[in-house]
């Protein structure tokens, strides 16, 4: 479930909207108050207890594609927004953009960032897929082992 949800910001945004409704309508308090969560299968009750608070602003926030540097441009950077961070913690990306801009960086936020796509495009991502298909020996000859940072939020200098 996690790998079908977390790497896809559109899916996460839809879930965040449902979570916002769940908490704002009082359903969350009702479910917790009358013990409905005990009826959930598996670890869903534990997962429900860990739900982050979601505001409508978080669900609706979109980062700008480009933010100019304050003062003279010293660098141009691309911000990898992070799937979960983009939806549930957008204030982190917003603060990162403000700091980079204040330090003279023009910040570009590429559209269509998708951790699933990014991880498939790296040698490590191709290797993981090969291993999952049972072709480990061929993958290790083709691509070097390399850690992937594609799902980590941050900025890459261009």
Topology of this protein?
Layout: H1 2-5, H2 9-24, H3 27-34, H4 44-49, H5 56-60, E1 66-67, E2 75-80, H6 83-88, H7 90-102, E3 105-108, H8 115-121, H9 123-132, H10 136-142, E4 154-157
Parallel strand pairs: 2-3
Antiparallel strand pairs: 1-3, 2-4
Helix pairs in contact: 8-9, 9-10
Written account of the structure:
With 158 residues, the protein is of the alpha+beta class. It folds into two domains: 2-59, no CATH class; 61-158, no CATH class. It is 52% helix and 10% strand. The chain has ten helices and four strands, in the order αααααββααβαααβ. It has helices at residues 2-5, 9-24, 27-34, 44-49, 56-60, 83-88, 90-102, 115-121, 123-132, 136-142, and strands at residues 66-67, 75-80, 105-108, 154-157. It is elongated, with a radius of gyration of 20 Å.
């Amino acid at each position: 479930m996690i790998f079908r949800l977390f790497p896809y910001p559109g899916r996460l945004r839809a879930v965040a909207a449902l979570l916002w409704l769940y908490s704002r309508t009082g359903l969350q308090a009702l479910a917790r108050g009358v013990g409905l969560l005990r009826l959930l299968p598996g670890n869903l009750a534990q997962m429900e207890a860990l739900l982050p608070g979601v505001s409508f602003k978080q669900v609706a926030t979109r980062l700008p594609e480009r933010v100019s540097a304050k003062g003279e441009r010293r660098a141009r950077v691309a911000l990898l927004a992070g799937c979960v961070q983009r939806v549930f913690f957008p204030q982190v990306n917003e603060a990162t953009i403000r700091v980079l801009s204040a330090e003279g960086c023009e910040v570009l936020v590429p559209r269509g960032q998708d951790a699933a796509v990014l991880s498939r495009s790296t040698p490590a991502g191709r290797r993981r897929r090969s291993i999952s298909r049972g072709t480990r020996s061929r993958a290790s000859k083709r691509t070097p082992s390399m850690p992937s940072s594609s799902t980590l939020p941050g900025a890459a200098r261009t």
